[in-house]
Every structure is written in structure tokens, then in C-alpha cells.
Amino acid sequence: MIVRNLQLVRDRITTACFAAGRDPASVRLLAVSKTFGAEAVIEAMTGGQRAFGENYIQEGVDKIVAVRTWEGDGLRPSSRHSSGERHSSPAEWHCIGPVQSNKTRLVAENYDWVQSVERLKIAQRLSEQRPAHLPPLQVCLQVNIDGGLTKAGVAPEEALALAAAVARLPRLQLRGLMSIPEPAPDFVAACAVHQRAAGLFEHINRAGVLQQPMDTLSMGMTADLEAAIHAGSTMVRIGTAIFGGR
Ligand SMILES: *Cc1c(COP(=O)(O)O)cnc(C)c1O
Predict the structure, then answer these.
(1) I need a surface site. Which of 51, 144, 211, 214 has the fewest CB within 10 A?
(2) Which helix (H) or strand (E) element contains residue 224?
(3) If we measure between CA atoms, which residue out of 162, 177, 155 comes closest to residue 123?
(4) For the chain, what are the domain ranges?
(5) Which atom of ligand 1 is nearest the CA belonging to 223?
């Protein structure tokens, strides 16, 4: 079921890209596996999926450990995964939920990406706590693009200064922006809010404060994937359409 759902989501992405005149290879799929177990992640991996998003930090770490054990098994020639099911590259883990100060070490030590950075203090802790043997932690700033009810994310007018400061931290690599707008009533309204995020993304890249431009605009979920791609998303975060209802 998960493998079939993944194919349906990939088809949606391809169709949306063609409708928007974009190359389907310009949009990555992040499978949001929150509340589902390691078996669901492993099933998605057998369907070719590599990038997974988790909201709850400790739940994600437990899953990361379980999946790495499975990946380790797969590398042993005698393992039951050694033939047809062998996987070429390991899973890539994205933290997409709120990060409190007391959870930064877990994130820095276990995840590959964190997309929910909204304060410099949290970014500084993540940089200090990122272990030397790991590559820099890949970071997106969460932007409160519509002043939404959750109020999570940096205000758009403060995003440029935060981006400039985060980009200077040694153990982080600033990759882009992430947004979670409130549900929109229709396609046009959803496009409008995603276009605001895309405009902010370009504004920051053109401001001349970053050594390297950002390459990731993370927006679009199960309900608004098409609108997000129309507006320029380079990474859609899909849970329900892959793993089912929560
Ligand atoms: C849960 C979640 C998603 C996935 O939402 P679906 O509607 O299930 O596709 C994407 N991004 C974030 C930040 C989430 O918390």
C-alpha cells in the first residue's frame, strides 16, 4: 500500500510540474512518517524513498535508530535483505517539528536536516552541538508566512537577518525556507500564500548577504502539493497521501 501510494504521489508531483512548466526533477519528496513506525519507513524505502520527516524529536530518534539497524543488516552478505531488497543509500532524516532548547542535542546528533529553525539561539546550540564526525547539519528557516494561528516560524520581515546570522554558523549549512500556511479555501488562495514564501526566498537570495544561495523552498503537503509546486516549491512534505490518516 505504501509503495503504491508513493507512486501515486510521484505521479501527482510529475503532473503538477508539467502543468507549471517545471522539471519534475526540481521537486524532492519528503515522506512525513510521524506517528508511523519504523516498519512503515522501511516499506517506503523498499519503494525507493530516501528522505523522511519527523515532527516529534524523540519519536524520530527511536525510528532513526531502528532503521539504521535494519540498514546495517542489509549490508551483511548473509542477511535476508542481501538480494533483491538491498538498498543503495541510507535514509536521510529531516526534523520538521518544534525544537526546544533541551532537544537541540538530540537533533544535532541524530538528524541530517532540521527545517524548523525559527530563532538564532536554537541555531547556535545546534551548531555547537553538531558532532565533528558528521557533515554540517542542513537547515531551513521556518517562516510564518501568513501570520497563521500556530505562530510558529520567524516573521517574514525578520527572516533576512536570521538567514544572514544562521549562514555564518560553522556547523550548519543554510539550505532554505520552510512554511506551513493555514489551509486555504481553494487553489488560487493556496497559490497566493505559497507565492509570498517564494518571493521572500528570492528576496533573501538576492540581498547579497549569503555566501551561497539557498536552494530549498520546502512547502506543500498532501492537500496543497499542486499549489506549492505551481508557486515554486522544491520540496513537498507528504504524510497522509503516503502513510494514510493519522
Ligand atoms: C504532518 C506534517 C506534514 C504532512 O502533512 P500531510 O497533510 O499529512 O501531508 C508536512 N509538514 C509538516 C511540518 C507536518 O507537521
Answers:
(1) 211
(2) none
(3) 162
(4) 2-78+90-243
(5) 7
Instruction: Specify the amino acid at residue 206.
Output: R
Ligand 1 binding residues, C-beta < 6 A: 32, 34, 55, 96, 180, 221-223, 237-240
Pocket test for ligand 1, best of 28, 29, 32 (most atoms within 8 A of CB): 32
Q: What is the pLDDT of residue 136?
A: 98
Which segments in the chain show pLDDT lower than 70?
74-88, 149-150
Distance 32 CA to ligand 1 centre (A): 6
CATH number of 2-78+90-243: 3.20.20.10
The Å distance, Cα 101 to ligand 1 centre, comes to: 23
Over the range 2-35, which residues count as b (16 or more CB within 10 Å of their CB) and which as e?
A: beebbeebbebbeebbeebebeeeebbbbbbbbe
